[in-house]
Amino acid sequence: ADATRLAQVVANLLNNAAKFTPPHGRIVLSARAKAGYVTIRVQDNGVGIAAENLEDIFDMFVQLDRGKSGAAEGLGLGLALARSLVSLHGGQITAHSAGVGQ
């Protein structure tokens, strides 16, 4: 595994969580190794994502409504790059959300 690229994936996930989590919000990073694989989880109490957008957030140049988060504008590349790098390492990346405002 390319440690530099995997660190970039984690950084992109954390940066994205920080953009959509309000001040004094919560972001939790956890990792678990099992049978030669690593599961990395980033959880936050941010603005949430509509079910129909969960897969789209990993597409290049996709930027969802920032709602009340006041998130800074970006290029919409961070999560697309994360997905690509994870895929190159033989892994997968997914997003889960209870919905907007959840």
Strand content range? 15-25%
Overall strand count: 2
Shape: globular
Give unreliable regions as ranges. Answer: none
Distance separating the two termini: 35 Å
Mean pLDDT: 90
Task: Return the structural class.
Answer: alpha+beta
Order of H and E elements: HEEH
Strand order across the largest sheet? 1-2
Task: Give a short account of the largest sheet.
Answer: 2 strands, antiparallel
Radius of gyration: 14 Å
Helix count, DSSP H or I runs of 4 or more residues: 2
Helix content: 25-40%
Summarize the structure.
The protein has 102 residues and is an alpha+beta fold.
If you had to describe this structure to a student in words, what would you say it looks like?
With 102 residues, this protein is α+β, with helices and mostly antiparallel strands. It has a two-stranded antiparallel ribbon with strand order 1-2. The longest helix has 17 residues. The N and C termini lie far apart (35 Å).
